[in-house]
Write a structure and sequence with these properties.
Order of helices and strands: HEEEHEEHHHEEEEHHHH
Structural class: alpha+beta
Strand content: 5-15%
Shape: globular
CATH architecture of the largest domain: Alpha-Beta Complex
CATH class of the largest domain: Alpha Beta
Number of domains: 2
Radius of gyration: 20 Å
CATH topology of the largest domain: Aminoglycoside 3'-phosphotransferase, Chain: A, domain 2
């Protein structure tokens, strides 16, 4: 979450007039993340999130995102729901941007995820993949392997200003992954961005999944690989095999990974690391002047990518090929 577009109180009050959520008491921008402009609203009826969609979110994709949240909720996945206006719509325009109001979920995201958090996320991700099987809408993943070279091209000329030799490192890894990316693995709805700040907990109980604005149809095990990168490394970027074992074992109890998925996991993890390295690098090099935003360190993913380059098979992530603990 972030704030790129400021919203005047008068504009917001007029926007809220079409909803049955009471009168505006207060609102504040949320500075975490890098994609949309987000605000926490407090009204006489309760608390809500307001999202103004910008940057990588295409207006034509919004019915997919909003519809998916409703579908998942109907299948037992706890996620925020778009609030409808009195006319039954979920999408409007505020400050010149497409905008929606989303239910507020209780809980906080874990700043220091532990093993129990990782196991809960593994179970929730598998349930999400199963719940998404009969979702009727589709959306291609613009940030899968075919989208990485355009990102590289945007950042290549300045990559070495971030770290010496980074351009050559990225070019070599991109060539490697493009030549080997699998096309025959099970596919379906993936979250594609299930980082700790998109998962809410009350204590160690998972209370909700949020931020579905990268959700799409892609390789299911690629979503698993994204979570390995997001949840199973420590602050010093060392890999925590105990967290990975808990995450993968919990996922496998709900949706066992096939042999081909297990064999592909190290490659998928490299791809996931490269994807976030590239998008973070582009964002790091192109922060809009005056934006209330905290660009994330792209070099974190250089270290993660180097780790995955050293992994030969799924045993390197703490589980045996059968999916049981190693």
């Amino acid at each position: 979450m972030a704030v790129y577009t400021d919203v005047a109180a008068e504009e917001l009050a007029a926007f809220l007039a079409s909803y049955d959520i009471g009168e505006l008491l207060s609102y504040k921008g949320i500075a975490e993340g890098v994609e949309n402009s987000n605000f926490l609203l407090h009204t006489t009826a309760g608390s809500y999130f307001l999202t103004l969609y910008e940057k990588r979110v295409a207006v034509g994709d919004l019915p997919f995102f909003l519809g998916l949240m409703g579908h998942l909720a109907a299948h037992g996945i706890v996620c925020p729901q778009p609030v409808k206006t009195r006319d039954g719509t979920t999408l409007g325009v505020l400050a010149g941007r497409p905008a929606a109001i989303i239910d507020f979920l209780e809980g906080v995201w874990p700043r220091k995820p532990n093993v129990a958090h990782c196991a809960a996320v593994g179970q929730a991700l598998a349930k999400l993949h199963l719940a998404g099987r009969d979702f009727p809408m589709t959306r291609a993943n613009a940030l899968s392997v075919k989208g990485w070279r355009p990102l590289f091209d945007q950042a290549a000329s300045r990559a070495d200003t971030v770290q010496h030799g980074l351009k050559a490192f990225l070019a070599a890894e991109l060539d490697y992954l493009e030549a080997r990316w699998p096309g025959d693995l099970p596919r379906g709805i993936i979250h594609a961005d299930l980082f700790p700040d998109n998962v809410l907990f009350v204590g160690e109980h998972l209370s909700g999944l949020i931020d579905f604005y990268f959700a799409c149809n892609d390789i299911l095990a690629y979503d698993v690989a994204i979570c390995l990168n997001a949840w199973c490394f420590e602050a010093d970027h060392s890999f925590n095999v105990t967290k990975a074992r808990a995450f993968l074992s919990a996922y496998g109890k709900e949706r066992p990974l096939s042999e081909v998925e297990q064999a592909a996991l190290p490659l998928l993890a490299r791809g996931a690391a490269l994807r976030f390295l590239l998008t973070r690098l582009v964002d790091f090099l192109n922060v809009p002047p005056g934006a209330l935003v905290k660009p994330k360190d792209p070099l974190e993913y250089v270290r993660k990518l180097r780790f995955h380059q050293s992994v030969n098979d799924i045993a390197g992530y703490g589980v045996a090929h059968s999916g049981s603990p190693a």
